[in-house]
Amino acid sequence: MNQPVRTPDPAAAAVPLTAPRELLADDLDRARRRSRALTDAVDDGDLVRQHSPLMSPLVWDLAHIGNQEELWLVRDVGGREPVRDDIDHLYDAFKHPRADRPALPLLDPAQTRAYTRTVREQVLDLLDTVSFDGRPLVEQGFAFGMIVQHEQQHDETMLATHQLRAGPPVLTGAAPPSSVTSVRGEALIPGGPFTMGTSTEPWALDNERPAHRVDVPAFLIDRAPVTNARYQQFIDDGGYRDERWWSPEGWAHRQRAGLTGPLHWHGDGSYTRFGRRSAIVPDEPVVHVCWYEAQAYATWAGRRLPTEAEWEKAARFDPATGRSRRYPWGDDDPRPEHANLGQRHLSPAPAGAYPAGASPTGVHQLIGDVWEWTASCFDGYPGFGAFPYREYSEVFFGPDHRVLRGGSFGTDRSACRGTFRNWDYPIRRQIFSGFRTARDPLPGEVA
Predict the structure, then answer these.
(1) Residues 250 and 136 placed together within one structural domain of the fold
(2) Distance from CA of residue 404 to its chain's centroid?
(3) For tag attachment on the chain, is the N or C end more exposed, with fewer CB atoms within 10 Å?
(4) What residues of the chain score a pLDDT lower than 70?
(5) Nearest-CA neighbor of 426 among 224, 253, 277, 280?
(6) How far is it, in rounded angstroms, from Cα 38 to Cα 170?
(7) Cα distance between residue 205 and residue 423, in whole Å
(8) In which order are the strands placed within the sheet that holds 212-216?
(9) How far apart are CA 115 and CA 90, in angstroms?
């Protein structure tokens, strides 16, 4: 496998940016409207119920969103008196595992809604007067952007909870666009250095920083994520019964968990999505597979998972200029024609549905649709510094977590960019996770 060589990038310096207050207010409002939609869609019984031991009750997520907003914006940035300091311990994600949260004396749905409203009122009042300079937490509106991203991340978590929820469907969304171009085969990404990470993105989180040069040898990568049809071939060929394709840890997990196909597949050509059972769409990216399943498929196909550095180079590097862009299509924020983001649709879109979002090397749907597993463990970049607290990233560094990149149909544009990093245990598949494969060039394939 290609091994990247990393060096600091001293030329990557922060650039000044004035955070428009109206933009921040709009982003906060968009996140809150989504939170309300996800929680108002069900009754109070469903809000307090735990739909899976892997997930919190929806009412916990909502109150946790408000509590983090209070801690960082009302108390820290604003220096104001607490709204509810008696509940901080209940909504500390590090004190209580998800499986234990239903037993806590949580705020009930009415109390939770009242609490989050009160916090938001204070935050909007603060936004009118706060200065965006003076200390790193507030420069360029970072603390507000951090809270926007935090709420949107929990909204995606709540969306995943809805997928695990039993009962009649309650969420609706327009069908994603159809494929408008054929996306087959692989793209060659040229070897050489590129700038990975960022020192200029104003709301980038600590694990995305700092920008640094990485020398990545040439590689080939799928032009689209692995589709349901391609994954079905792996299943039909006995992929889940053949130990040859699995790592020892993956095979042990497959046996222990009784895996026979992606989560929510029924084995008869159908799957269930948000309470609705329908036929599997062949050209849609496969979703709800764990890292071990992705790795086994890649081995079966004679390929491998891309490293995180390879994934980011495919997503950001422009061979014509040698520059790393914010997104595959350029530096502009995502628009609907670029990517399947923001829960506009309740499923991935078929391969080839977003040609305007392709990279300069012809790689499609790197942003949105499904989070993509990479081969890499989650760790800090050279020169990493924890900010504003160690528990956001640093405590997760090491071999236990694998990196996912690119976002999903449930990821908001504020929490997704070419440098954004996600991570999870290799057994997790309740998340909206898929993958694409890569390989080293054969002799003669690189000029």
Answers:
(1) no
(2) 7
(3) C
(4) 1-19, 447
(5) 253
(6) 9
(7) 13
(8) 5-8, 212-216, 192-196
(9) 14
